[in-house]
Design goal:
Helices cover 71% and strands 0% of the residues. It is an all-alpha fold.
Length: 109
């Protein structure tokens, strides 16, 4: 049975926002943000690649760890870009109003 955590992405986003106001020498989050968008985006990309590698190796334990890193670094990226998590969640909710194939086809980019 999978244990359901009560900790949410919204909780983590609140921690990231709080730590954005810290001093860089006291907070890894603040030091990332102080490095600018390029540093934050690069770190997110690195973590995403590590998650992909863990998935391809079918290493569930490592994938769990890397997925946690991806989610954290995504929230730092959103913080750096001034995009609230609630805005992303609203977009996801909008997209779930129709099938994924219909939604994807409507995005003609």
């Amino acid at each position: 049975m999978i244990e359901v955590a009560s900790f949410t992405l919204a909780d983590l986003a609140a921690i990231v926002a709080d730590r954005a106001g810290s001093r860089a020498h006291e907070s890894y989050t603040k030091s990332l943000l102080d490095g600018g968008m390029d540093r934050v985006a690069k770190k997110f990309g690195e973590e995403a690649v590590e998650a992909i590698i863990a998935a391809m190796q079918q290493d569930r334990a490592q994938l769990t760890l890397e997925a946690a890193d991806v989610l954290y670094h995504l929230l730092v990226l959103l913080q750096a870009g001034s995009v609230p998590l609630q805005q992303v969640m609203a977009e996801l909710e909008r997209r779930t109003q129709r099938s994924g194939l219909e939604e994807k086809a409507s995005r003609h980019r």
